[in-house]
Write a structure and sequence with these properties.
Elements (H helix, E strand, L loop, with lengths): L11 E5 L6 E3 L10 E9 L3 H5 L1 E7 L5 E8 L2 E6 L2 E5 L11 E8 L4 E5 L2 E3 L1 E3 L14 E4 L3 H4 L10 E9 L5 H6 L15 E2 L5 E3 L6 E15 L8 H15 L4 E10 L2 H11 L9 E17 H12 L3 E2 L5 E5 L5 E4 L20 E4 L1 H7 L8 H14 L4 E15 L4 H12 L5 E8 L5 E2 L2 E2 L10 E2 L2 E15 L3 H13 L2 E2 L4 E11 L4 E2 L2 E5 L2 E5 L2 E2 L3 E5 L7 E7 L5 E2 L27 H12 L7 H17 L4 H16 L8 H14 L6 E6 L2 E7 L8 E6 L8 E4 L7 E7 L18 E7 L12 E3 L3 E7 L12 E6 L10 E7 L2 H4 L2 E3 L3 E6 L3 E6 L4 E7 L7 H31 L7 H27 L4 H33 L10 H23 L4 E4 L18 E4 L2 H35 L9 H14 L15 H13 L1 H11 L2 H11 L36 H6 L9 H6 L9 H4 ...
Antiparallel strand pairs: 1-13, 1-15, 2-12, 2-14, 3-8, 3-13, 4-5, 4-12, 5-6, 6-7, 7-11, 8-9, 9-10, 16-18, 16-20, 16-21, 17-18, 17-22, 19-20, 23-28, 23-30, 24-28, 25-28, 26-27, 29-30, 31-34, 32-33, 35-36, 36-37, 38-39, 39-43, 40-41, 40-42, 42-46, 43-45, 44-51, 45-51, 46-50, 47-48, 47-51, ...
Helix pairs in contact: 11-12, 11-13, 12-14, 13-14, 16-17, 16-22, 16-23, 17-18, 17-19, 18-19, 18-20, 21-23
Keywords: Cell membrane, Disulfide bond, G-protein coupled receptor, Glycoprotein, Membrane, Receptor, Signal, Transducer, Transmembrane, Transmembrane helix
Main location: membrane
Family: Belongs to the G-protein coupled receptor 2 family. Adhesion G-protein coupled receptor (ADGR) subfamily.
């Protein structure tokens, strides 16, 4: 693009060579005495020699030494300030053909800073720097010249390279400013041609140096030539013409923020036309105006490009569409400057002296976009701008801010936001009022478009849509001195004026106008997890910026929201790194009264990601909470935040026992130091509540404090001086004698205050008394600034607490208080001064002669397991029950599907026993999950079902013994009709009757058990969970479970002994030479032991020193009982394996259904048969064989018809034993031969005798 701007050097660079050695500052531009400054410039080199040593600039005073300078010598940057030389601590290697930005900042009585491409570079002085003073004024500034040309003592060479954008500001810029505001123009020395004296050196364009920016001020003078012969162009008319002209000629991405117009004195008009050398002479029909335009370029463009575009577009003569005038801009006067932010008020261009006030117009759309580009970065910047602007503001102009709320009805289809902004822009006068920060509030009512007969009726009538909007915005008013009421009336009148642009109409109502008195946000410090930020005083509507503590090259921003109560919004710290990342990092945070709430917010954020805190983390958090309470003013909001943190700690899965006293002291201190309330105040959070009540000495008669909550204690509700009701879990009555302990009235003491506390976490309080457990929530009362320790009261304090577990057995309870000195200072329960007054199953009332933390202990004399063993046993129990459930299901399925396996009684009894154990295991596995639903009826159903299957399992174990007794002992003269039916009636009926009786007599015996090891003698894991539905009543448990099991197992033990005796007798009578293996005998005994449930008797001995070992043995054996049944009665039985291979296998593993396998399924050792076996003294084979039942062969029916009695078959139990066989007799009466010479029934005794026959 053609270079058209005659002043700006943006986009231009100097090429310093031997011929062009330096530039000097124009003598007409003087540098004042400065107390702070910033110098920035860009440079580039093409050779290593040129890049290693050069001089950028020197500023000196004729009467003084070198005041300021910057150079490089042997790759070290050198800075001169007041004659002192500073140098970088490292060598700087500048890459060739690359632009570098260098900035130097200094402040009076402050430090000197050097930046390369926005990055701070450390520099040190070779000698102690002189006493701080101001920079000498009216000195000489040179660019590129060697140091010796200015000061003979400086030997840095002249520069051979390119330099551009040299600027000087009269203030120290921050590191953030150096980086983010690098494209704005200087305010003392500018990169403009009229600032420099360049007799030899010329500049040239360099497209490689670009700087993009979006905020510009444009100053120019324009002339309006009237073609209608009139000379009545008023200031307001000129403003409107200029606004229309600028809107039309500037690109669409150039948004106008403000257009201000001033009248130009007659003396300057003619001069401008002479300078233009136009063929136009001044006449009365030409009128000139000065103009100041604020332009926002979105998106940002290169500064040089923007300057050229503006000059190129504005120098073209503009013809009014009506043909009545022409507008011509003086091209020499067009001056575009990139600025940090727009001025708050209009600045009259220098050299203009006019009496009339300026007239401005503001584009509302531009105001909205401007908010994202302009920022306020420091206090000094804001103050300097305001001071300068106030100086130039005409004295008869006032600035006021108002906030407006209005309801709007829009008729027509349009975008509400765009329509409202257009309406405000056209309704409010641009020269007096500026709309700021328009916000559409949530819709109060919106009626959708209504169309008659689907958009068209027969007459094709369209009903436009009507919507209601509520909006709020701020108005900046600049106008002659008027009182506030007049301005509000004028704004209201303008907003009530109907608006219709042809497509949309607007009507307003409920207009509320309020003056904004506070327009600034005060400076404040803000401590966050990303560091400490010091926000400066900032004007409303502006943004403040601060470098990030951890990564200073990034910045955080914060907006000062302009409104009725102008305030800081939340800061944007997205680009900042965390300084406090973990809880241990809090140790490096110092708590002060000012940052206390910030530290609380940090702790809340850290705890949000921690479900468990270790010892060190708890210590760190609690130490910080103590510091906050001690150093800060505890307001209700801060107190609530502290209580929320304590609640989070109580809810965590942390070991709180070492910190109980600390937590109690913190909550006590919160109540002591609470301020900012009247009468009373309550802080409530899950599991904790604090109430403070101020009392008037002499008027105190009594005071009550009550708490209602759910069963878990996480939803407490507090009531003061109200009678307790059904949901009350804690209640304290304070007697009137307590007033004698109140502090006496004096100027140095606070008024009496009573504090109440509630804790819904019993685990916070360690139980120091063996055999007792805390059975209530904890509640406390205390008095702030008591005149003496409150103890030995003449009238007792009455405390009523609700039991967590109903005391239905009238077990011993104990009223206790928390003694902070017990357990080596960790605290513990003590009963001194407290006594039980009244007790029921649900409540206990205590009387105490002092104030502290109160609770009720319940006697749970059974010693619970330690947590580690309890957890291991729980895991073993659940795993064992799961495994047993699987194999019990396989066992039941096998014996049910294969009909040949369930023809005898033992197999049918085994099926029922397996079903009972399977039900018990399944209910146990889902018990905790179902009880967690918190439904009492469901819990009773689960507990009673589990009780039923446990009793059914015991009963079927007893029936196994009965069947064994019939088979081995009562062999003769026993007839049991409907044998299995009667067994089923007993096995499933007796447990049902017992459970029904329990439900009828004491339904509350079933429920959720809270304490561990309540029934450890049978199933310790039953009580290992706080949410486990089981028998709560000990009497019911011992009668219906323990006593019943004891009777069953006593009978089973007796039968087991008889069986062993019978086996022993048969061993004695076995033929000579027959031997049985020890493992076979052991396997048989083990099988009988498991079927009779004798392993359950281990639970009766889980007391004393061997308790833990026996519990492990008990849990392992009984939870895996189903697995053992599968091993001994499925996997190790040959006839079961045969059925599997016949029906489930393929190929060479499959068996034919008529394979020659023993039907008995014995796996015992069979002796070689002898030709003439001797007779054994055993019962007659005729009798024995005639007693067999349920034969597996076709001959069993005839055998049963000839039998004199029926007896059960026991072959399933004893098939693993290798026992002596009975001798066969050659004369057998009443017995039918079995096909293939096999026994007609697989009964245990018949099986043994049949095997002896084969011998």
């Amino acid at each position: 693009m053609e270079q058209v701007s005659r002043l700006s050097l943006w986009g231009e660079v100097i090429q310093f060579t031997n011929r062009c050695s330096h530039w000097t500052l124009n003598p007409q531009v003087s540098i004042p005495a400065l107390q702070e400054l910033t110098v920035c410039f860009n440079l580039k080199f093409e050779t290593d020699k040129a890049a290693s040593s050069w001089t950028a600039f020197m500023y000196s005073h004729p009467e003084l030494q070198t005041e300021l300078g910057l150079a490089m010598k042997e790759r070290r940057l050198l800075v001169w300030l007041f004659g002192t030389e500073w140098s970088t601590t490292r060598r700087i290697n500048l890459r060739l053909s690359r632009w570098y930005s260098l900035c130097l900042t200094w402040k009076y009585k402050g430090g000197l800073a050097l930046y390369i491409d926005g990055k701070h570079e450390k520099i040190t002085a070779d000698t102690p720097p002189p006493i701080s003073r101001k920079l000498a004024p009216n000195g000489m500034l040179t660019l590129g010249a060697s140091g010796s040309a200015v000061n003979r003592n400086i030997t840095s060479p002249a520069m051979v390279g390119k330099l551009s954008l040299f600027r000087l500001w009269g203030r120290e810029r921050s590191e953030h400013d150096v980086t983010s505001l690098r494209c704005i123009e200087g305010d003392i020395v500018k990169w403009e041609s009229d600032n420099w004296y360049t007799p030899v050196c010329a500049v040239f364009s360099d497209s490689s140096l670009e700087c993009e920016w979006s905020v510009y001020e444009v100053r120019l003078m324009f002339h309006i030539i009237r073609l209608d012969g009139k000379n009545n162009t008023e200031l307001y008319t000129a403003r409107d013409i200029a606004h229309t002209w600028l809107r039309k000629v500037l690109p669409s991405t150039f948004f106008l923020n403000r257009v201000s117009v001033f009248e130009v004195p007659r003396s300057r008009k003619k001069d401008s036309f002479v300078n233009e050398r136009r063929l136009v002479e001044w006449s009365p029909f030409i009128k000139s105006f000065d103009c100041l335009v604020h332009v926002n370029v979105i998106p940002s463009l290169n500064v040089a490009t923007v300057k050229n575009m503006i000059t190129e577009e504005l120098r073209v003569i503009y013809d009014d569409p009506n043909g009545k005038l022409k507008l011509h801009a003086d091209s020499d006067s067009i001056h575009s400057t990139p600025v940090e932010s727009f001025s708050a008020v209009t600045i009259i261009p220098p050299g203009v002296v006019t009496a009339p006030s300026p007239v401005s117009t503001i584009t509302f759309k531009t105001i909205t976009s401007l908010k994202t580009t302009s920022t306020t970065t420091s206090v000094s910047t804001t103050e300097a701008s305001v001071t300068a602007l106030t100086t130039n503001t005409p004295p008869n102009i006032s600035e006021l801010y108002f906030e407006v709320k209005v309801n709007i009805s829009l008729t027509g289809d349009s975008d509400p936001g765009q329509t409202v902004s257009t309406w405000l822009n056209s309704s409010l006068p641009d020269d007096m009022m500026t709309v700021l920060d328009l916000q559409l509030l949530p819709k109060t009512q919106r009626r959708q478009s209504k169309l008659q007969s689907n958009l068209y009726t027969t007459n094709k009538v369209f009903v436009p849509s009507v919507s209601r909007e509520s909006c709020i915005f701020q108005v900046w008013v600049m106008m002659s001195q008027l009182d506030t009421q007049e301005i509000e009336t004028q704004i209201r009148h303008l907003l009530l004026t109907p608006y219709n642009n042809g497509s949309v109409s607007i009507a307003t109502e409920d207009i509320q106008i309020s003056r904004i008195l506070i327009t600034n946000c005060n400076a404040e410090t803000h401590l966050t997890m990303k560091g400490l930020f010091a926000w400066p005083d900032t004007q409303g509507g502006k943004n403040a910026s601060q470098p990030c503590p951890k990564n200073p090259l990034s910045h955080a921003t914060r907006q000062c929201k302009l409104c009725l109560s102008t305030h800081w919004l939340a800061s944007d710290q997205e680009d900042c790194g965390l300084v406090v990342e973990t809880i241990p990092d809090l140790d490096h945070v110092e708590v002060t009264a000012e940052n206390a709430l910030d530290v609380v917010e940090m702790i809340e954020d850290l705890l949000r990601d921690h479900s468990t805190l270790n010892y060190q983390e708890l210590a760190t958090v609690l130490n910080k909470l103590e510091d906050i309470v001690n150093l800060s003013r505890v307001t209700p909001s801060l107190g609530q935040a502290l209580i929320n943190i304590i609640s989070d700690i109580l809810e965590s899965d942390s070991n709180l026992v070492p910190f109980t006293n600390t937590i109690l002291n913190i909550t006590e201190a919160v109540g002591d130091k609470m301020v900012g309330y009247e009468g009373s105040f309550t802080l409530v959070a899950p599991y904790i509540a604090i109430s403070v009540v101020d009392v008037v000495p002499g008027e105190f008669s009594s005071l009550t404090f009550g708490v209602s909550s759910d069963r878990a204690g996480n939803k407490p509700e507090i009531f003061i001086n109200r009678y307790p009701f059904n949901e009350t879990v804690a209640f304290i009555f304070l007697p009137s004698v307590l007033q004698h302990s109140f502090p006496q009235n004096s100027s140095t003491q606070s008024p009496p205050r009573v504090k109440f506390q509630f804790f819904g976490i019993p685990m916070l309080f360690k139980n120091s008394q063996s055999g007792h457990a805390l059975n209530t929530f904890v509640v406390s009362a205390s008095v702030t600034n008591a005149s003496s320790p409150i103890k030995d009261l003449d009238e007792d304090v009455k405390v009523t607490l609700h039991h967590l577990i109903p005391n239905t057995l009238d077990r011993d309870v104990q009223c206790v208080y928390w003694n902070f000195n017990k357990n080596n200072g960790h605290g513990g329960w003590d009963d001194d001064g407290c006594m039980k007054y009244n007790c029921s199953s649900q409540y206990t009332t205590c009387l105490c002669d002092h104030l502290t933390h109160f609770g009720v202990l319940l006697d749970v004399s059974r010693t619970p397991l330690d947590p580690a063993n309890e957890q291991i046993l729980t895991i073993i129990t659940y795993v064992g029950c799961g495994v047993s459930s699987v194999f019990l299901g396989i066992t039941v399925l096998t014996y049910t599907v294969f009909e040949k396996l369930r023809r005898d009684y033992p197999s049918q009894i085994l099926i029922h026993l397996s079903l009972a154990l399977l039900g018990l295991n399944l209910v146990f596995l889902v018990n905790s999950w179902l009880s967690s639903w918190g439904l009492y009826g469901l819990c009773v159903a689960v507990a009673s079902t589990m009780h039923y299957f446990l009793l059914a399992s015991f009963t079927w174990m007893g029936l196994e013994a009965v069947n064994m007794y019939f088979a081995l002992v009562k062999v003769f003269n026993v007839y049991v009709p409907s044998y299995i039916l009667k067994f089923c009636s007993l096995g499933w009926g007796i447990p049902l009757v017992i459970c029904i009786l329990v439900l009828i007599m004491n339904r509350e015996a079933y429920g959720s058990h809270l304490y561990t090891n309540a029934q450890h003698s049978l199933k310790p894991a039953l009580a290992n969970s706080d949410d486990f539905c089981w028998l709560q009543d000990d009497l019911t448990f011992y009668v219906s479970v323990v006593a019943y099991a004891a009777l069953v197992f006593l009978f089973n033990i007796a039968v087991f002994v008889v069986v062993l005796i019978q086996i022993r007798q048969m061993r004695v009578n076995r033929p000579a030479g027959i031997r049985s293996g020890l493992m076979h005998d052991l396997k048989g005994v083990t099988s009988i032991t498991l079927l009779l449930g004798l392993t359950w008797t281990v639970g009766f001995f889980t007391v004393g020193p061997a308790r833990v070992v026996l519990l492990y043995l008990f849990t392992g054996l009984n939870t895996l009982q189903g697995l053992f049944i599968f091993l001994f009665h499925c996997l190790m039985k040959e006839n079961v394996r045969k059925q599997w291979r016949i029906h489930l296998c393929f190929g060479r593993f499959r068996l034919d259904e008529f394979s020659d396998y023993s039907n008995s399924g014995s796996v015992g050792v069979t002796a070689k048969p002898k030709s003439n076996p001797p007779k054994a003294p055993v019962p007659s084979l005729d009798s024995v064989k005639s007693s067999s039942t349920d034969s597996t062969s076709a001959s069993s029916d005839s055998s049963q018809r000839d039998s004199s009695f029926k007896r059960p078959n026991l072959g399933l139990f004893m098939n693993s034993l290798a026992l002596p066989r009975a001798q066969n007799s050659t004369s057998v009466t009443g017995a039918l031969p079995s096909p293939r010479g096999e026994n007609p029934t697989p009964g245990w005794r018949n099986h043994l005798l049949g095997q002896q026959e084969k011998r």
